[in-house]
Batch of 4 targets.
Target 1
Amino acid sequence: MVDRVVEDLADVVSILVGSKDSFRLDVSQDDGSQWIELSLQPEDRGKVIGRRGNTVRALRTLLAARGRIEGERYELEILDPD
């Protein structure tokens, strides 16, 4: 299940940033949640976060809805660039 969620999220993020090569998604599990960590290029962070965080909030809402359907809990974290 989580693989399909990551694929779907990758499709959406690639539309926002323009390329699947400019970000990385990693998944880990903790306390019953599936943590999806999104690593972006610094110039793409604003595209994914959006004005006042609206875009990332929408992505998290979609993940929460998907999790309710599947009986899972998905958390999205955008990592700071190294």
Target 2
Amino acid sequence: MRIASVANVKAKFSGYLKASQSGPIIVTKNGKPVAVLLAMHDEDEIERMLLAYSPKFQRILHLAE
């Protein structure tokens, strides 16, 4: 896992995309974490990520319990 500032990620975005293949990149602003850059390896992984962060889907799961 690497940590990089927004300014560094902005200046060298393609390099950070490549680096994210080996692990997440924590992006910081004013020294505080604000985002994570993750590599996606297939479409299923993208779908799982979108569902995990979907408030509507989370409500459905909660109601199903």
Target 3
Amino acid sequence: MKRQSGLSLVELMVALVLGLIVVAAVIELFISSRQLYRVQDVKARMQEDGRFAMYRIGELLDRAGYRGCASVRNQAATDDDTQTDGSQQSSGRPIQNLLTTESDYFWQLDAPVQGHNANGNVWAPAKPGALNNANVGSDILTIRTVGATYIPIIAKQASYFSVGADNGLDDCDPALEPNSCSNIVMVSNCNDFTTVFQVTNDPSNGELRYAPNVGVPGNRNEDLIGEYGPTSWVNTIASHSFYVRDNVDGTPSLYQKTLDNNAEAILEGVEQMQVTYGVDTNGDFSVDSYESANDVDFWTDVISVRVSLVMINLEDDGTDTNLALGDGSYFLEGVEVTPNDGRLRRVFTKTIMLKNRNS
């Protein structure tokens, strides 16, 4: 038998071709696995970010309209029953607002939520000037609610409330810092009025005073109505506006503006926000229809809010336009959208009942 002395050229070429096929298959597997990992990683981050955004908005909506023991439906203004949106509120325990800016946008407390529907670069109702740089085509949602701070009243004195020195309010004096010290609070109980005022002293001494014409916005020169004793308590209150705008890097982000403070970006990668409102027109505590902000006649009729956020993938290395399979289409409020830019998008939608509105 003739001994094998080497490989022929044909055999060598066949071996090289087979080897190249195996290497190409391994490379293809690696690329596919890497792409799959990138897509799953991006989806996981979008999922986490979307859940965080919904939690941030939802926790404020859960407290929207809080008035102590009574809901918005069961409260009336002290002067008359006509609200800032023109609706008529039923009689009940009244709310007294001592702020000089009680009729300003951020303090219209009779409307726990208020929205502005975007049609291109026009919003209806017209957005306030303080909410500037909002991205076109994205709605604005304002939530007026209490904070998490709860302060028991020790005693009601002639011109102030006695509370604990460790009360959770900002240790500042509005007389010395009129533009940065603004402890706005609401005192309430289950038997009397509810009153909103600005604390006009440094609360670290355990006193909450409400003198007129001190600080910004300041209180009116008006006597506080109601008897507030040890069964009363104090909550901080504020208005929070959510909207989408580009950050300094040009990335669409969800912004939150609290009162007149500077807006802060709380989450990158939010391309759009759409909001509809569940309206109860006959007073039976159930939603009769969901309307966009421009179709809501009376904001006191809103008992639920449906928020939809469009999340978009972000990649630090600039390779964020080759992740979507096909045309990357998605559905938003029943309408199919086809961006066709190679980026991943996901829509997060949540409907939240206004608990303090439905009682």
Target 4
Amino acid sequence: MLLDLLRALVRAEGVAVVVVGTVYALGCYLRRWQEEEAYRLLRQKLARAILLGLEFLIAGDIIRTVAVDPTLLNASVLAMIVLIRTFLSTTLQLEVEGRWPWQKRA
């Protein structure tokens, strides 16, 4: 019961991070929409919000799988979710920083 509540709170935090980050990114864009770099900055801020939100959502899934309902099916589903979200995180990081995570900074 308590772990279910914790899982729900962590997942809600993930959604809130994405929503607040999106609003923030759009606000920054609207203030600078005429500047040449405005669109690129919007994409970067939005990608950062999505990345952080994904981390919270993965944490919620891990809590559910490990502590709440540890079945082989749930572990398999978690593995697929983590694989997909890792791919998304990697491509978003490439978008934000302009380099792969394993590449050194210029």
